[in-house]
Design a protein that fits this description.
The complex is a heterodimer. Chain A is mainly α. Chain A contains 8 helices and no strands. Helix content of chain B is about 75%, strand content about 0%. The longest helix of chain B is centred in the C-terminal third of the chain and has 31 residues. Classes of the chains: A mainly alpha, B mainly alpha. At the A-B interface, helix 1, helix 2, helix 3, helix 4 and helix 5 of A face helix 1, helix 2 and helix 3 of B.
C-alpha cells in the first residue's frame, strides 16, 4: 500500500465514523459539528482524487455555508429538549433487511466487475484546466444553475415572509393570528403536554 | 496508486446508506434534510472517483452541479422547515397532517 492509499483508507474511515456519529446524535448542534468533520474529510478525498478546486468548494460551500445555515436554523428555533423516539424496531426491520441485501449484492457486483481492481493513478486537474473544460462544454448548464440559485433565493425569501407583513399588518398582528390558529385544532402533542403540565402546577 | 476504484464505490455506498438511515429513521425535519445532504455527498464522492478512474473531467463537472443543487435544496428546505415550525410549533413530521 502506498502512502496515498494509506491516506485514502484513513480519511475514509474518519468520514464514515464521523457521519455515523452525526446521524445518531440527539443534540442537533453536535450532529452538525460532526458532519462538518465529515465534509472536511470528503474535501480531502476530493484533493486525493486530483480535484483541488472541488476540495476548496466543498469546504467553502458544504462545510462553510450549508452547515452554518443549519446552525442558524437550530439557533433560531427553540428546540425543546426533544423526546424524539425512533420508530419501533418491528417497523423498520424489514426495510433494514432489504437494504442489507441490496448492500451485499452491490458490494458483490462491484468486486465482480472487471476493471474494479484497477488502481487509481495520481492525476491532478488544475483549477485552470477544470474551468476551461466546464466553460467550454457546459456553459449552458452553468447558466441554468445560476437561474436555479436565483429561484431558490426568491423561494426562500417568499417562504420566510411572515404572513400579513406584506399587506401592511404588523408582525405582532400576524403572530397573534398565528397563535389563535395554533390554539385551535392544530395544537401539537408537545403543546398539549406542556398545557397539561401547566394545569398540574 | 491510490486505491482500487471498487473501494471508492464501497466507501461512498456506506456513506449513502448512512444518509438513507438518517433520512428514514430520524423523526426530526432537520435531521431528514441532513440525511439528504449526506446522500448527495456520497454521490459527489463517486463522481470525483469516477473522473479519476476514466481520466475524464465530466465527473468533476457533475460534482460542481451537485454542490449547486445541494445549496439550493438546503436553502429552500430550511425555509420550508422554518415555515412549518411557525405553523405547528414542532419538528416532528408526523405532526404535519393538516390534509388528513
Amino acid at each position: 500500500m502506498t502512502l496515498y492509499g494509506f491516506f485514502f483508507y484513513v480519511i475514509s474511515a474518519v468520514v464514515i465514523g464521523a457521519t455515523a456519529i452525526a446521524i445518531t446524535r440527539r443534540n442537533l448542534v453536535h450532529a452538525v459539528v460532526y458532519l462538518i468533520v465529515s465534509f472536511f474529510g470528503t474535501a480531502m478525498l476530493f484533493y486525493l482524487f486530483g480535484a483541488p478546486l472541488l476540495a476548496a468548494l466543498e469546504v467553502i460551500i458544504y462545510a462553510g455555508a450549508i452547515m452554518v445555515l443549519f446552525l442558524f436554523v437550530v439557533m433560531m428555533i427553540r428546540v425543546e429538549s426533544s423526546e424524539e423516539v425512533m420508530f419501533p424496531l418491528s417497523q423498520w426491520l424489514p426495510a433494514a433487511i432489504f437494504g442489507l441485501i441490496y448492500l451485499v449484492a452491490a458490494v458483490a457486483m462491484i468486486f465482480e466487475t472487471p476493471g474494479a481492481e484497477v488502481s487509481l493513478r495520481l492525476l491532478t486537474a488544475t483549477p485552470k484546466q477544470f474551468a476551461l473544460y466546464v466553460f467550454e462544454h457546459h456553459w449552458f448548464s452553468i447558466e441554468v444553475i445560476s437561474l436555479l440559485l436565483l429561484l431558490a433565493l426568491v423561494g426562500a425569501l417568499h417562504l420566510g415572509f411572515r404572513k400579513g407583513a406584506a399587506r401592511g399588518l404588523s408582525a405582532q398582528d400576524a403572530d397573534a393570528r398565528l397563535e389563535g390558529r395554533r390554539a385551535g385544532p392544530v395544537s401539537t402533542p408537545s403543546e398539549a403536554a406542556s398545557a397539561a403540565v401547566e394545569e398540574k402546577i | 496508486m491510490i486505491a482500487p476504484f471498487g473501494h471508492v464505490l464501497v466507501v461512498a455506498g456506506i456513506i449513502f446508506v448512512l444518509g438513507v438511515f438518517c433520512a428514514v429513521v430520524r423523526r426530526n425535519l432537520i435531521m431528514i434534510v441532513l440525511g439528504i445532504e449526506i446522500m448527495l455527498n456520497a454521490a459527489a464522492i463517486v463522481f470525483a472517483g469516477a473522473a479519476l478512474r476514466w481520466n475524464d473531467l465530466e465527473g468533476q463537472t457533475f460534482v460542481l452541479f451537485i454542490l449547486a443543487v445541494a445549496a439550493t435544496e438546503v436553502s429552500v428546505g430550511l425555509a420550508i422547515i422554518v415555515y412549518a415550525f411557525r405553523r405547528t410549533g414542532s419538528f416532528d413530521p408526523s405532526n404535519f397532517n393538516l390534509l388528513r
